[in-house]
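Kindly inspect this chain:
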Amino acid sequence: MPDMKKKIFRYLLFLLAGWPLVLSAQTDSFKLQCPLNKATIVPPPKNMIHYDEPDLCVVLVSIPDTAVKSVWSGKITNTEYTDESKNGVVLYTKINGKDYYFWYTGLSRVIVRRNEIVKPGQVLGYIQPGAQIEMLMYQFETPVDISKYLDCK
């Protein structure tokens, strides 16, 4: 019987020792640099009617800052002209071995080019003072809630 207690004790220790690995494997632990200085996240309007699944878009505004910066190092895969005379930038990167895409929209001027390699904090373009940018994050093709990773204070 004492051998059985030792086996059970060892088994429990083995299980408990493995929990930190299981928990860390389930969540990605990284923080993204804020694309605007002194940015605030703008909540969506409460009276808005939603027909589709939420696209997990984050809207950021910063009154004093006009430079939009890269949240991580990576490669610019696309720059585009969107509606209302605004521009968009798509940044591709690998974080913890996973493919991520960051889509910035609402820029009034883009200064990076397709296939350019950028560093964290590098200026991608500019917005008008007080204007808003929208950011989307995808893990390959799956939308991700970027607000969980953005370090905007």
